[in-house]
Amino acid sequence: MTKKIGFLSFGHWTPSPHSAARSASDVLLQSIDLAVAAEELGVDGAYFRVHHFARQLASPFPLLAAVGARTSRIEIGTGVIDMRYENPLYMAEDAGAADLISGGRLQLGISRGSPEQVVDGYRYFGYEPVDGDHAAMARQHTSVLLDVLTGKGFAEPSPRPMFPNPPGLLRIEPHSEGLRDRIWWGAGSRSTGEWAAEQGMNLMSSTLLTEDTGVPFHELQAEQIEMFRKAWEAAGHQRTPRVSVSRSIFPLVDERDHAYFGTQSQSRDQVGHIDGGIARFGKTYAGEPDRLVEELAADEAVRAADTLLLTVPNQLGVDYNAHVLESVMTHLAPALGWR
Fold it and tell me: CA-CA distance, 217 to 246, in Å (whole number)?
């Protein structure tokens, strides 16, 4: 199955001398450079994780706009933005601008969010969930965002505006046509995958699920994807949805690869706890290319998805991460039928 292949960067930085990204400036500029290099290698997407109160990427839209201005083909996106923190109207303006700058290449991954660096960090941003239900607040923010991205007018114009208005109710500007169909929900369970389908959002599934049924991670994730697609069909949406999965994949082709990831060649699924609940984590794929081709061919969720996001160790620098992407595109993608 032909696939779109992108990278997903968590954008870590630390002042440690062992890190290639030692400041926020470093990680922002290197993220742009990696997207440019990825496009030159034929990679299809440049995606960035968003975390607040952390030495990581936190404000995605300036970065996405900059990547859009420096590239011409590659999709640009997030994986994911925590909607508990977001003003959906302001977000719609920023997203519309970034999408227009990129020529309609924005693929916006959003979600309820993940464990935070601080206690209830969204409260510092001015958001107070009703009855303490922060997941419901994230979904309410998402509902507003999806509504305004349709481009329908909803705001009553002033009878004495500073500038002339078009007739009727006014919409958020700038509006980017088609962006509503390029919103993805980062679903951590099978049930949230079904909810995303009902809302008409694409499915973005990560390297962990916040549930465990005892089956291997890739089988549980494949079940999530199947349930998502059935719910999509039942909802009667007219377009074909997209599905992405994330994987940590490192072909061992030179001494650097063996030094960094050789010890992870025996990686296995893990079961742990997140936010007080059980979770299953997918393994890291590290090994000789021929072996990885066999292992990835047996990954049911990778087979089912149309988009594969490669998590990259951004602190190892642009050159090394470009090397990892090139190794996947050269040694794995053709052999697996992704190209």
Answer: 12
Across the strands, what pairs with 108? 78, 183
How many residues in the chain?
339
CB 69 within 8 A of CB 99: no
In 50-143, DSSP assigns E strands to: 75-82, 106-111
pLDDT at 274 over 60: no
pLDDT at site 279: 58
- Both tokens of 65, joined, read 């706009």
H/E stretch holding 46:
strand 45-48
Nearest to residue 310, comparing CAs of 295, 297, 326?
326
Bond into 60 cis (ω within 30)? no
The residues spanned by each domain of the chain are 4-156+168-332
Model confidence band, residue 270 (pLDDT cutoffs 50, 70, 90): low
Average pLDDT over residues 174-181: 98
Task: Give the homologous superfamily in CATH for domain 4-156+168-332.
Answer: Luciferase-like domain (3.20.20.30)
**3-class DSSP assignment, residue 4:** strand
Q: How far is CA 227 from the centre of its chain?
A: 20
Query: Could you give the C-alpha distances from 253 to 43, 44, 303, in angstroms and in order?
Result: 19, 22, 24
Give the CA distances from residue 204 to residues 41, 244, 274, 306, in Å, rounded to whole numbers and listed in that order: 23, 5, 19, 11
Give the three-class secondary structure for 211. coil
